[in-house]
Amino acid sequence: MKVQEIERVILEKLPDTIFKRDETGKTGSSWSAVVAASGIRDAAKAFETSGFFLEDIMALDFQDTFELVYHFNCYEPGSRVVVRVLFGHDQVPPSICDIFRGAGWLEREVHDFFGISFSGNPDLRPLLLPEDADYHPLRKDFGKVSAYRKREDIYG
Amino acid sequence: MSEGFLSSEWLRLILGLLIVLGFSQLNALFLVWLERKVAGHIQLRPGPMEVGPHGLLQTIMDGIKLIGKELILPLQADKKLFFVAPVLVFMPVLVGFLVLPFGPNMVIHEMNVGVLLIFAFSTFTVLAILAGGWASNNKYALLGAVRSVAQNIAYEIPLLLAVMSVVIMVNSLSFSDIVNAQRTVWFIFLQPVAGLIYLISATAETNRAPFDIPEAESELVAGFHTEYSGMGFGLFFLAEYTNMFIVSAVATSLFFGGWNGPFGISLGIPGVFWFLFKTYVLIFVIMWVRWTFPRIRFDQLMNFSWKVMIPVSLANLVVTAIVLKLI
Amino acid sequence: MAERQIASPASQKIYSLNLGPQHPSTHGVLRILLDLDGEFIVKADPVIGYGHRGHEKMGENRIYKQFLPNTSRMDYLSGMIFNHGFALAVEKLIGIEVPERAKYIRVIASELNRISSHLLWFGTYLMDLGGFTPFLYAFDDREHILDILDSVSGSRLTYSYCRFGGVCRDVDAAFIDMTRAFLKRMAGRWADYDNLVTKNIIFINRTRDVGIIDRELSRQYGVTGPNLRACGIGYDVRKAEPYEVYDRFDFEVPTGSKGDALDRYDVRFKEMQQSCRIIDQALDHLPGGPYLSKVPQKLVPPKGEVYFAFESARGLTAYYLVSDGSTSPYRCHIRVPSFGNLNVLNEVLPETMVADAISILGSIDVVIPEIDR
């Protein structure tokens, strides 16, 4: 099965990745792996050569960290896997838009909403917000309300 | 010319012109209403029903509304050309009415080069469309105008070749002669290929669907008449329907027997009614085609003309000439 | 596909044209900046965001059941399916049981919605190509579906029919009769549409070999739904990760072969027929019983996340909800299929003609408000 194979390939490239199985079935994926920001490009390349497609990139804003959630899937039943990248508020993760060309727009959207710049993405113009927008609405300190939580509060 | 009141050439011309002006306006009004009704019924809906019985007064009301609208001149548009274009597109089609035989001895001005006159003047519409599109200072209008010029030039050729096939059969360019020659059998039965080519080319010449790329609403907003409002737009619109009438009337005269009844039997009905009836049936067919088929893409349209229509019409002309020589 | 001698960049005369944002055929507020060389497109840059309303931020400031109406407004043509998906996502997060009858009713409503979305796509696609009549025929059929769904939910387009734990109102005999009459009517209509459109040589020439999105391109951009199935990959979430009672029905997943506009048209056409099959089977097996299970008024989900994927009319859609143990989500993200479907135009549109661009845009069936959210 492709899912087991890709797990093996990622462990080869990034040996200290921790895979968390999904027992409850709520995450819709087989496993979720936390990868360092420097390793996301290797992981993405592994997925690309194995025939996966990038389903989604999403960001989460916590008090102590930013989190990027990448969903990869291939066209077989039950093959969705999640890769997470945790990095600080002042760090700049690398872009994977040359590996998966569809990631260009997804990263633009994340930049729009959170202000996360992706190094290597040539075009980070606002996608959904107006061209001259200099605010990032989905951050938890946007506007008057500060709704920050810590990551361990939610994920333990 | 016979004796009497109408023998004066000038009087005949003036009276004819007045009738033509009146008839062409009424005809255009009627055709706009007919188009909307035909479209409605093909699309399972009744069409205009509110204004007048079955919407008969709709077009008049629309005309009055259009006259009352502001004539907007776009910024940096060529003012003279912009206002000349709608007038230029309307004038030539009126000329066509002068030489068409509405009935036996019912031609306003009998000319022995009537066919040539009509087709010479119909090319003015291309000039007017180009003028309108260029003068609008609008990229969509320019694109539409350029496409229209290419399309009109391409379809002019098979049109004329098809007509030539009929002309060499009769040996005359006069409409009356051609109609008189169809007293017993209509030319559509002798020249079916030419008739079909003529009808297809005529639809393309009048920019009707499926050849309405120059005014493709869903691609170029409105093509060459994007920037026109009020009566300028109204004139383009009316000219299209009058052109449709001319083209159908020419088809009737050349291929469907003009004012003759079928096989020479007139059933006591005057020729002019036969002529109008056949013309309006052809117009109805053109409208029917518009609401049934999608639009042909521009390069497919050009390919169809240059690679299919012209060789076929040329071959038809050659075959006609050979057969005439042998008979 | 139009053959073209590709002019060298030095001899190209580029002029820029704006397709949209107000345009009869951009299916929402979409602006494509086209660089044209005569009739051919050299570069295409879609500009979106004109309909951004901040649904994801709204999700963080609403309690879960207040977000239900928002879901219909994103992809308003599959409003019921989005509703359904959100209800399923929250039920999965909290662990709410849904009675059998409610499951069948939700499936019937979703499949009716899918048919109405495809009918609208069919009508507007033909209108873009210049054939005005099929538009009215399709809308006539669609009216029947809207009447059926109106009778049970109260709205014609943006439904809030599903609730956490079932549906808000039960269906009665009138609903079942109307649905059966509709299925009978459609059984005769497919042949009409075939004769009017599918076999029309002009239509085939406008769509064959136009806008080919092959497998590699689909994978790069995350294209899903009928656009993906048109290039031969039979991936449908209803079969790959069955939810509700879809695993009890017998239906096929139509696929194409080349990935051109004609294949996309064929796939959607056949999908409508398959949806009719599903509705038929669901009506046959509709069980009795309750239609809404008891759910506490104040819903406080446990901490954690849920990612629920389902098949909307446009492709794989997913709700990603992160709960921090309070009555509102910490993050409410929606993965929409039209995002990738529109993204792929960056590579498909260059080297085509403007007329083809309209045909391609219509055939990929994007709904812009879904992308803008």
Oligomer type: heterotrimer
Instruction: Tell me the strand percentage band of chain B.
Output: under 5%
Strand content of chain A: 15-25%
Distance between the termini of chain B: 35 Å
Largest sheet of chain A: 5 strands, mixed
Given the structure, what is the number of helices of chain A?
A: 4
Written description of the protein model:
The complex is a heterotrimer of chains A (156), B (327) and C (373). Chain A has a single domain, classed as Beta Polymerase, domain 2 (2-Layer Sandwich), CATH 3.30.460.80. Chain A contains four helices and five strands, in the order αββαβββαα. The two termini of chain A are 30 Å apart. By secondary structure, chain A is of the alpha+beta class. Chain A has a five-stranded mixed β-sheet. The mean pLDDT of chain A is 85. With 327 residues, chain B is mainly α. Chain B has one domain. Chain B has 13 helices and no strands. The radius of gyration of chain B is 20 Å and the shape is globular. The two termini of chain B are 35 Å apart. The model of chain B has no long low-confidence stretch (mean pLDDT 83). By secondary structure, chain C is of the alpha+beta class. Chain C has one domain: Orthogonal Bundle (Cytochrome-c3 Hydrogenase, chain B). A three-stranded antiparallel β-sheet of chain C has the order 1-2-3. In chain C, strands 6-7-8 form a three-stranded antiparallel β-sheet. Chain C has a two-stranded antiparallel sheet with strand order 4-5. In chain C, strand 6 and strand 7 form a beta hairpin. The model of chain C has no long low-confidence stretch (mean pLDDT 88). Chains in contact: A-C, B-C. Chains A and C meet through strand 3, helix 3 and helix 4 of A and helix 1, helix 8, strand 6, strand 7 and strand 8 of C.
